[in-house]
What does this fold into?
Amino acid sequence: MDAFETLERSRVEFRRVLVDVGDEDWDAPTPCEEWDVRELVNHVLGGNRRYEMLLRGATPDEVHATRSVDHVGDDAVESFDASAADVLAAFSESGALARTVHHPAGDRSGLDLLWLRVAEWTVHAWDLARAIGADEEVDPEVVDSLLSRLTDHGTGLDAGGYFEEPTVDTAATDPQRRLLALVGRSP
It folds into this structure.
C-alpha cells in the first residue's frame, strides 16, 4: 500500500470512530492522560490545519498560534471532513512530499509529515475508540504500513513529548499491539 492510500485509509479510520462520539462522550478521559475526548479531537483537527500550514510554508510560530483555537466547532465530523480534505489537498500538490517543512520538532520532508499524519489519525482513532467504548480494531493494512514505516524510520518526534516512550509490549506478535506499544500505548 503506498503512502497516499495509507493516508486516506487512516483518515477513514479516524472518521469511523469520530462519528460514534455522542454528546455524553466529550468529557470522557482518553489514553492521552492530558486530554479528554474533546481535547483529543481538537488536537487531531488542529493537526490537520497545522500540517496544511506547514506544507504551504508557515513558520513554527504561525503554526504554534493555532494550538489555542477551537477546531471542533459545532459539528466535529463536518470540521474533520473539511480540515482533512484541506490537508489531503496540500499533500497532493506538486512537489509537496519533497518539500522541507519547518515542524516545531525540527525540519523534515513533506513525506515524513504525511506519515506523521497517518500516525496521528491511526493512533488517535484507537485512543478515541478506547475512550468512548467503540470498536478498537484498526484497519490491519494501515497498521502494517505504519508499523513498517515507524520501525524503519521512527516517529521523528521522540523528543518534545509528542509520543510516549514505548511500552514493554513492543515484542507482541499482534501488529496493532506492537504499533500501539511503539507509541507508548498500553492496549
Remarks:
- Confidence is low (pLDDT under 50) at residues 156-162.
